[in-house]
Amino acid sequence: MLLMIVILFLLILLSYISLKRNRKPVIFYTFFLSGSYVLLSLFLWRIFNRALWNFPALFYSPVRNPQNMILCGVAALIIFSFLQLYLFISNKGLIVRNTHFNKRQWVTFVFLVLFVFAGSLIYTGSYWTMHDMGNVRFDQIVYIMSQPLQGTDPLKIREFIAKPLLSAFGFTSLGATIIYFLATHQLSLKKGNYIKRKKILSPVFLCLGVLLFSTGVSFGIREIGYTDVKAYYFEDTKVYDQSYVDPADVELQFPEKKRNLVYIFLESMESSYADKDIGGIEEENLIPNLTDLALEQGTQFSNVNEGQLGGMLQIPGANQTASSMVAQTSGTPLRASNGVLDGNNYGMEEPDSFFPGVYSLGEALEKENYNQMLFLGSKAGYAGRKAYFEQHGNYEIRDYHWAREQELIPEDYYEWWGYEDDKLFNFAKGSLTEMADKKEPFNFTMLTADTHFEDGYATEETPDLFGDQYSNVIHDSDQKVNDFIEWMKTQPFYEDTTIVLVGDHLTMDKDFFEDIDPNYQRSIYNVFLNTGKKDVDNNNRLFSALDMYPTTLSALGVQIPGEKLGLGVNLFSSQQTLMEKMGPKQFDQEMTKRSDYYDKYLMQGSDYEIEQRAEDDQ
């Protein structure tokens, strides 16, 4: 059924007849009206939550999309009505076009439109980021912006196009139309008595463009938070100068019989998913198995009292998956150096020098002849993860691409971020057994993905126990992790293997915790299994992802002189963490600020070198 193409054709035909009859420039106005029709139709679809990606419905309406057809008809009616109103006023002599742009004015008008679009996109993008996602900080936004799109969740790209980008186009189109109209037409309250007006000059367009751009930037910064932006670019911290311990300079003492390590990053896994009786925020416990592992079988480090499920607190530089993986394994936050995006080495698909100044867990284990593997169902290259783990520990990377090459999944298979966790755990058993069969100790590092926002990844086999998808996915992930742990317990390597289960960051599914008590402290799940550690002071602790590095080595039986690596502190020791010394609020503020030490000694040879060359050239 080609009803919508008929509607578009009728709109163009009726507009053509009206414009021709009134001696208006037909081609220009017809093109403008057609573009307005498409934009307004998409805007109405978004307002009424229609499928924005069914673009053919702009021209025809399949039976399954009658609502889209109706909205397109409404858009056409609105556009045609405005045209008739304009022609009526024009014929009455109340408005007349008396100015045509010269070449210079057209150039400056184009710059005006670009300024308006940039300002609009900054505001709409900031609004979308802060209102559609949760727990987003400015450092996180800058780092993500510095990354290539390869490996990004297609759903997020589509949402960006459908929401902030479409809104920015709408604001720009409306603003440009009004400005063009006012610049080229005169108004009169009485026919023939036109208001005297000055000639439109190019500087007016430029000044107006700068003003509107600045307004968009100002509103965007307000959405993100002036405090974070100011701290990121203009405030300095001395935490690194005073407290950073270079792990490369620490003489780590490994036990004679080295223990294996299985380190599993659990996507968006919070202790908050437990029920209220044991420290969570839910009415029913969504993670009963992980709760049992933390409170009964292993050692959890917790910010709350004994017998309660708690965890680590989130900080800037460890608040998204890649940065948390780096922070947990290097004791150092990850941020784009000074927010420089154009020359940021992290933004390369294959950076040859990723965070060169840090000495990580992988490098410490590599020195002790560990075999190491990063195992994940997404594309490892996204956000620099592949580069980091290859350059800091020579990990073998087995990701989505590897699974396709091994024909574990079909060539055209792509679900969620690559392939789902159900397959991930099954495939992991083979790779883990392969590593265990070698004579050297191993470090098997893995990342889950099903619990990523928005709403997680559910299949027909995911039990519907709680009435909402994200709760069901979290509970199902809890079961999958437990089944994997139970499988490992039956394997010959288990006795000599320490297992670390830890969330990467708080969930960014904003709706999930929309109605919780604002005073409740959400925390990130962690547990250390099979460590042999006794009498550990693990409750009422204040710590972050930075402390996981020395704590993991300690769980392997490694002696750490001074108990500190990077900015992290061994939680199995009696030493206070930096967060405990400074307090969570101040420590968070310090991690937001820039640092010359960080840029010079940790970013050495990459971002810092680029910035220095730029300064020398000036």
From TrEMBL:
Q: Which residues form the signal peptide?
A: none
Pfam families per UniProt: Sulfatase
Named in its record, the pathway it takes part in is: Cell wall biogenesis; lipoteichoic acid biosynthesis
Primary location class:
membrane
- What membrane topology is given? Multi-pass membrane protein
Keyword Endoplasmic reticulum recorded: no
The organism's superkingdom is given as Bacteria
**InterPro entries, sorted:** Alkaline_phosphatase_core_sf (IPR017850), OpgB/LTA_synthase_biosynth (IPR050448), Sulfatase_N (IPR000917)
Q: Where is the Sulfatase N-terminal domain?
A: 259-558
* Membrane spanning residue stretches: 29-48, 69-89, 109-128, 165-183, 203-221
Kindly list the places in or outside the cell where this protein is found, as annotated in its UniProt entry: Cell membrane
Q: What is this protein called?
A: Glycerophosphotransferase
* Source species: Tetragenococcus osmophilus
